[in-house]
Request: fold
Amino acid sequence: MISTRGRYSLRVMIDLAENSVGNYISMKDIASRQLLSVKYLERVLSELTKAGLLEGIQGKGGGYRLTKSPGEYTVGEILRITEGDLAPVACLATEAPLCDRKNQCRTISMWQDYYQLTKDFFDGITLDSLMRKDS
Reply:
């Protein structure tokens, strides 16, 4: 399940893509449009900035903006930053210890296929395509 942080991160990224046009957008403006608390938004923006998806500057005229064009961001990339691994079961997580039952597991191939479908689905959606969807 995708958490609130993941969903809000997508909303923030879409907001910045739709409103920045190269300019920095204040946290207050994003929070107002997205009906988010500034305190919560600080954490989301910090995480996205540390990952290099956004750049921010402090002070008058400061704010945040995308580091790439909207078409270069995928939903999968954003969710992996905010949610971590999207693996459906613990044994498929990126740094999971090797499962000693893997060779006898009757369901591992099903989980692997499901995980691949999930990655392909989210990696096939860009911010640009979400911006163009009708509400």
Summary: The longest strand covers residues 54-57. The beta strands are 54-57, 63-66. The first helix runs from residue 4 to 19.
